[in-house]
Amino acid sequence: MNGTKMKGEGDDAKDKKEEDVVHLRRTIGLLPAVSFIIGTVVGSGIFIAPKGVLMNSGSVGLSLVVWGLCGILSLFGALCYAELGTSFTKSGGHYTYLLETLGPLPAFLRLWVEFLFVRPAVASYVSLAFGRYVVEPFFTPCAAPTVLIKLVSILGVTFVVVVNCWSVTMASRTQVALTFIKMFALVLIIIPGAIALAKGKTENFQNGFEIDALTLDRLPLAFYNGLYAYGGWFYLNFVTEEVINPNRNIPLAIIFSMVTVTVFYVLVNVAYYTMMTPDELLLSDAVAVTFANRALQGLASVIPILVAVSCLGALNGGFFGAPRMLFVGAREGHWPALFSMIHIRRHTPLPAVLLLYPLVVIMVAKGEIFQLINFASFARWFFIALATLGMLIHRYRFPLHPRPFKVPLAIAVTFTVVCFFIVGLSLYSDPWNTGCSCALTLTGVPVYFLTIHRFCVPPRCKRIFNYCSKKLQILLEVAQQEVQTY
C-alpha cells in the first residue's frame, strides 16, 4: 500500500544528503548479527530448562541427547530461515514469508497473534525472570517481595525500550556487550565442570542411559523444554533490511550462532551433571545458582547477576526484532499506517516499539502469564511450520526465483514435518491450552475481513482514527520512509 508512495518520494530524496533521508539504515554487520542471535537465544532457558529436560527424559545420557537433537533441529529451522531471508529481502520474519508464500490471511493472523498475546507474554516472562534474579539475592533466604520484583522487571523493560527507541546502533552495541557477558557466564559454568571431569569425577554419568523412568508420552515434553531454551534463532530475519550484505551475513551468522549455542548448551549440561547428581538437579528451581553454590563458592553471588544480564539481552533482542514485524505489516497495509513510520532523526521504528511497552507492563503488573506462555508455544510453532511449508511450496511454484542460499531439501522437509508433529502432539497432550490458542488466533479472521479485505469501518470512526494518527505522528516526530530499503 505504501510501496508506491515510497518510490515516488524516493525521487525527491535523491536531492537530500544521505544522513537526512528518512529510512532504516543498514548498520548490522556480521558481529552484531551473531550477537543478536546468540544474545536472543541464550536467555533464562539454559539456566532453568535442564530440570524439565531431565525430568521428562528420565536419564542423564538421554537428556544430553535431547539437548543435542534440539540444537540440530533449531539449526535446521535456522537454515530454512536463512534461505527465506535471502530469497525475500524484506524485514518482518514470519509475517513476510507467510505473505510472500501463502498469502495475506495467514500473514495477518501471524501479526495479530504476535501482538495480541505472544510477544507481550514472552517479554513479560523474560522480564520477570530478570527482576527475580536481580532482587532475590538481596533477600536470601527469605522470599523477595513480589511488588519489588515486578517493579525491577518494569525498569528492565523501560531500559530496553529507551535503548531501542533512541538508536539502532546503540541497541546493537548493547546486544553485543550483553552477549559477551552471558557467554562469559556459560564459560564460568563449563570450566569447573571440565576440570572436575578431567579429574575423573564421572560417577553421575555411570549408567547414564537407564530408561526405566522413561515414558514415551513424556519424552516430547523434554523436547519442548529444550526447544524453549533454543528459541529465538529466527529474530535476525525480522531485521533483514538493516543487515549489511544480507546474502552473506545472514547465513553465516545463523550457522555460526546455532553451532556455537548447541556446543555451549551441551557442555553446560555436562558441567551440571559433573557437579550435581540427577536428584539434586531435579530438586533445584534455579539450576545455575545451585551449581554455583556447589562449584563456584567464591563467585556464587555473581551467577544470579549474570543470569539477569542474560535475560536482559534476550529482552533487548526481542524488542529489537519483533517491532520490525509490525513495521512491515503496517507498510503492507495490514496494520495502521502510523506503525510503518520511523523517527525523522533517530531512524528507529518508534511507534512499533512503543506499542509493545504498555502491553508488556500491564502483563508484568498482572503477573499471571504462564498460561499465556503455553498458548504462545503452540502459535509460534504452528506459524513456523506454515512458513517453512510455504518455502517448499514457493520452491515448487517458482523454481527460477533467485535463492542466494538454498537449504538441502531433506533438511527443509524434516524440519517442517517435525514442526507439524510438535503442533499435533500439543493438540493431544494439552487440548485445553492448544484449543484456547487456536481460538485466540482465529479471532483475527473477522478483523481481517472487516478492516482489510473489505473495509467496513464507519466513515466517522475512520476520520477520528486518522485525526488521532496525524496528531500522534506530529507528537512522536515520525514519518514514512523516503526510500525503499528492500
Question: What can you tell me about this protein's structure?
Answer:
The chain has 486 residues and is an all-alpha fold. Helices cover 72% and strands 1% of the residues. The protein has 20 helices and two strands. It has a two-stranded antiparallel sheet with strand order 1-2. The longest helix has 32 residues. It is globular and about 70 Å long.
**Distance from first to last alpha carbon:** 15 Å
Q: What share of residues is helical?
A: over 70%
Regarding quaternary structure, what we see is: single chain
The gyration radius over C-alpha positions equals 23 Å
Mean pLDDT: 83
Question: How would you sum up the global shape?
Answer: globular
Strand and helix order: HHHHHHHHHHHHHHEHHHHHHE
Beta-strand content? under 5%
Adjacency order of strands in the biggest sheet: 1-2
Question: Top keywords for this entry?
Answer:
two-stranded antiparallel ribbon; 486 residues; 20 helices; mainly alpha; 1% strand; globular
